[in-house]
């Protein structure tokens, strides 16, 4: 059975940077199971699975535009240090959860910390990166 929209797929996958640094992988643990179209994978990654069947192994190179987009300079915000708790230790590279206007979780990475200013990057951490997406399809069946 081939993968199409709405099929339940069990697979192993790995997501790597161009230098082969592993970002995420199931190859060393239990496989992942998802329903194509349920939002567990970005649409562009799901599209790569369409037409594959159990037993297929593929390696895809995914450019930033098809992965997590290019970084948007408008997603880098300058915030007052006083916007953060006084006892909070802020360091570059630190991920902090913020709430957007709809109170949904919005992760931001601290880029710079100054006396009265904190620069926070709300771009996806993989924005601008070409990724290697490796999959091994274990099972494809109709979703329950």
From TrEMBL:
* Domain of life, source organism: Bacteria
Q: Which InterPro entries does this one have? A: PPIase_dom_sf (IPR046357), PPIase_FKBP_dom (IPR001179)
A Pfam short name: FKBP_C
Q: Which Gene3D superfamilies match?
A: 3.10.50.40
Tagged with keyword Isomerase: yes
Where the record annotates domain PPIase FKBP-type, the positions are: 6-90
MF (Gene Ontology): peptidyl-prolyl cis-trans isomerase activity
Question: Does this UniProt record's set of keywords contain Isomerase?
Answer: yes
Keywords attached to this Swiss-Prot or TrEMBL record, sorted alphabetically, are: Isomerase, Rotamase
Q: What is its EC number?
A: 5.2.1.8
Question: Catalysed reaction(s)?
Answer: [protein]-peptidylproline (omega=180) = [protein]-peptidylproline (omega=0)
Q: Which family does it belong to?
A: Belongs to the FKBP-type PPIase family.
According to UniProt, the name of this protein is Peptidyl-prolyl cis-trans isomerase
| Organism of provenance | Bermanella marisrubri
